[in-house]
Amino acid sequence: MTDIKAKAKEIRKLIFKTIYNAGGGHLPTCLSMTDIMTVLYYEVMKIDPKDPKAPDRDRFILSKGHGGVALYAILADKGFFDIEHLATHGKKGTILGGHPDMHKVPGIEASTGALGHGLPFGVGIALAGKKDAASYRTFVLLGDGECQEGSIWEAALFAAHAKLDNLTVIVDHNKLQAMDKLDEIVSLGSFTEKWKAFGWAVEEVDGHDIDALRVVFKRLPLEKERPNCIIAHTVKGKGISFMENVPIWHYRQPGTREMELACDELGLKLLEGGGK
Fold this sequence. Notes:
Largest sheet: 5 strands, parallel
Distance between the termini: 38 Å
Order of helices and strands: HHHEHHEHEHHEHEH
Structural class: alpha/beta
Strand content: 5-15%
Strand order of the largest sheet: 1-2-3-5-4
Helix content: 25-40%
């Protein structure tokens, strides 16, 4: 069995190098969801890089599309496209844009980045699966700041109404958004109870605990005829100490001394020559 903890460290390195070479990107948001996505892609989902459009494949939608580099790193490592493409991110003519594009990148199920749209899209896919009696499952990764969008809750209502137990939402609950803490902008209040009130089966988990993530994913569906919501408590910027839980790093690039520290903490040789 693949050592998932070691794999997650490798993916963090790929993310960091890709964003640094591009000259910018949403590094902390990628790092907060790395462990979640690594468990999903290497242990949970039924996917085949050689046949990315297989009818019975599980579907994954990264609704918080600004974290697309995390998805690119995993898809490249899994063999959906040549890993050398990661070096083109942020460059003219690349297939790897700032947000994922389903028409350019193998393995991308939905073009995302306009927050609030991924879950409605995923609900439609899950509903089609139910109507077709298909075996595939649909997974949607949301940002917690994204859950301030009304379209999320409209989709949540319908998913419960349609009894979509083949649908799983994972919320990357790092408690930060672009400019500040969630509670300083629009508080989500009793977040778990909100999802339950909308008719979902809900489980909370440490989003960086690989073993805990394995356990909760193996339990799916959490309840028959209810859509699943996994609220994963995470740390924005996980793995780079000076970025963790600090809002200013939402898009900022590290300076020289910060670069040395980040590379040291990630187990990388010092990178040079980053930028477009």
